[in-house]
């Protein structure tokens, strides 16, 4: 999500910077075109102010920019198809109706300037004129510019409102008049406006039959020449990325809390409910999780009560059956009958033990795990004198403290050790050093192991590794189920792994 939002934000930032860059490019192109046109007119004046016989020498002494080509010719280049007199040219490019009240007015001839208000700007009068010399247009001569009375200088201020008219040339246009006066060209030819970056002007020099041909090329704009473009993009990307990552982590914090609560959830543990404070969606998720946890605990509690009730109710008829079996006169039949009753009693006792362990009524205490396991190993070895030498607790230096229910842990490790001896022939109990707040205990044997598909199935109730259901070769199938219930009820877990080259390993993880 962070990556997606960052990419989207960067895309929007690039679009915004691209629009700004296009505006900057447009402004830069107009500025460069204006500057190059001024440079062209200055080159013209440098040549035109000399006598005709010295113009070749002046041209050789000029040092124009590398993008400029300047030469004298008998006629304009053939591709300079547009050609006008000077007065018409200045109407198209500089000032509509020409410069007023100057010696240039005398060159206007018929159709030249006449007293009266200035007309609309040239770009509204001549749509076919090539405004590309100024990069797309000329300064607007309307509104808020100084105006002049007929036959006078510029005085006063422009009228305001919808009736304001175009009043006269701008200061920049006066600069152009001062630049060329008193050496105006007789005629001017130029390239058509469809040439993108190529510009060209040819001036018929005064008092001369030759033309000054000037051609130049506008530089291509490069937005990456500016250090602000990549710097702005980099700062926006880094800043937005950090804010997005922080925001997404804040949004996902309730999800991580919910995940941790689900991982630590133990049906038999009295863990506190999740807080239902915060945004609506978070509160609803926490409330749903608390309701689910409550239903699971209620279901397990009801199952446990049912098992306990069935076990207690079965004890009375089993006891009566055992007493009545004593009155059977056939000794062989009586022994078989008592054997079946004892087997039934063992199954009921195991069921009651399973339900009792599930209730987790024993309080949690801090205990010495090494001392507890030593007690369990000694008790199992004492109850199985023939197998005592094959039940070993590996040496461990130090003390490992853990929180748990001592009686429940004794019963769980007793089941694991007995299973290891019954099915593997021996039991090796190993305590591993604590790591990340967890302590691990392994119970290993050298038996044949189990198929991989049965390693998890062995923890189901009434499932045995020995499928014959013969009481002489196996128990009730509740030992591992009771063990996992006890350990998970204390915040730990137990899993089975096959050893190499043979044997089985029960790995118990507890809270250190």
From TrEMBL:
What InterPro entries does this protein map onto?
2C_sensor_his_kinase, HAMP_dom, HATPase_C_sf, HATPase_dom, His_kinase_dom, HisK_dim/P_dom, HisK_dim/P_sf, Sig_transdc_His_kin-like_C
Its EC number is: 2.7.13.3
From the Swiss-Prot or TrEMBL record, state where the protein is found: Cell inner membrane
Does this UniProt record's set of keywords contain Cell inner membrane?
Answer: yes
The reaction(s) catalysed by this protein are: ATP + protein L-histidine = ADP + protein N-phospho-L-histidine
List the source organism: Acetobacter sicerae
* Residue ranges occupied by any Histidine kinase domain in the UniProt entry: 309-512
List the Gene Ontology MF annotations in alphabetical order: kinase activity
* Main localization, broad class: membrane
Name of the protein: histidine kinase
